[in-house]
Specification:
- The protein is built from eleven helices and ten strands.
- With 348 residues, the chain is an alpha/beta fold.
- It has one domain: Spore Coat Polysaccharide Biosynthesis Protein SpsA, Chain A (Alpha-Beta Complex), CATH 3.90.550.
- Strands 1-6-5-2-7-9-8-10 form an eight-stranded mixed beta sheet, sandwiched between helices. A two-stranded antiparallel sheet has the order 3-4.
- Strand 5, helix 4 and strand 6 form a beta-alpha-beta unit.
- The longest helix is centred in the middle third of the chain and has 20 residues.
- The radius of gyration is 20 Å and the shape is globular.
- It starts with 50 loop residues before the first helix and ends with a helix.
Length: 348
């Protein structure tokens, strides 16, 4: 198996005494600017260009299939009236130490992403590695797919690593800094994909590229389609709950790396996800300003913690799906949705 070369992350040096982190606005990809007046975090565009123009300068579509056509599908049609676009991404950061402490290599992720050949939903995928992007294109075959190539240093969550010297917990986070940047980048990718909606679906799901790695063990598997979870509420974002939203101080959440919901899979309506991802980036800005930096699951906990001043009326509520105790708490929701599809398909 071809070994994948590491991509160099360009660190942004500070100009003068201060540097402003510009997070994603409506299209999700922005840049850094400097200012010498006071330390603040803002949502801005640059160079008088529209946001779609800024994004187009950085994103290259290397593969795009035709829009999803339900008439060509053999699966039960009653599933398709609520079709979901799946969004995923792969960022080449070399070896990865995951949230549970496992060390994963690029070759591991190349194997894991093979599960996407079995996912019938239309897929929008983001890569910074052309080899992996082309591997993904081959895996998807004739399935509805859009593949985007974007440089890693055009993604603010990676560029922010260069500013961790300003963060109190930088030393503790240093070993996992790139992995943490990956967790934040997913909300940028989702935001951008939901805004463009290339396959014109009402619903979107984020799916980690390694989420269904159980389908790559060599055993015979059947294709499936992700659908909305049972009892899904249109005004909420569905997450797999691994803990309880017990009120906590933000500092405690990040120091102890506490988890309320897992973020390998989440599902919502297009308009709600756009609002949710914007709110996520605003929260991340505020947490960075307070000297708090951790993975996305800590940011999500802080966003919705009852005692947190970050929990404002602009947030989209989370709908908790409690993990099945018989299943992995991180993939329980996805496995259940896959099994629902298989059961419905058998009946038809």
């Amino acid at each position: 198996m071809e070994r994948i070369t590491r991509q160099r992350i360009v660190r942004i040096t500070r100009k003068n005494r201060f540097m402003y982190l510009i997070t994603f606005t409506l299209c999700g990809f922005v840049c850094y600017i400097s200012n010498s007046s006071h330390h603040a975090w803002t949502l801005l565009s640059t160079n008088q260009k529209t946001l779609p123009e800024l994004l187009a300068m950085k994103r290259t579509i290397i593969s795009q299939k035709q829009p999803f056509n339900f008439s060509n599908c053999t699966e039960p049609l009653h599933i398709h009236h609520k079709a979901i676009t799946v969004v995923t991404a792969y960022w080449n950061i070399g070896g990865v130490t995951t949230a549970n402490g496992d060390l994963k290599t690029n070759n591991d992720y190349e194997i894991y992403m093979a599960s996407f050949q079995f996912i019938l939903n239309p897929v929008v995928a983001y890569f910074d590695d052309s080899y992996m992007a082309n591997r993904f294109r081959l895996l998807r075959g004739n399935l509805a797919t859009e593949i985007n190539l974007i440089k890693q240093n055009d993604i603010p969550s990676f560029s922010a690593i260069g500013q961790l010297n300003d963060v109190v917990i930088a030393q503790r986070m240093a070993a996992r800094g790139k992995y943490i940047a990956v967790t934040h980048a997913k909300y940028s990718a989702m935001w951008e994909a939901a805004l463009r909606n290339p396959f014109i679906t009402k619903y979107f799901a984020w799916l980690d590229i390694s989420y269904f790695k159980d389908m790559t063990s060599g055993q015979a598997v059947q294709p499936f389609q992700l659908s909305l979870p049972p009892g899904f509420m249109e005004d909420k974002i569905a997450f797999n709950a691994a803990g309880h939203n017990t009120p906590r101080r933000r500092e405690e959440i990040f120091e102890a790396e506490l988890i309320w919901v897992t973020a390998g899979l989440f599902i919502g309506a297009q308009n709600k996800l756009i609002t949710f991802c914007r709110r996520y980036h605003e929260t991340l800005e505020q947490l960075l300003k307070e000297g708090l930096y951790g993975a996305d699951e800590q940011v999500l906990y802080a966003m919705y913690s009852d005692k947190s001043s970050l929990n404002t009326s602009g947030s989209v509520a989370i709908q908790e799906y409690r993990a099945d105790p018989r299943l992995d708490e991180r993939t329980s929701l996805g496995v259940i949705l896959r099994d629902i599809f298989y059961r419905i398909s058998k009946k038809n």
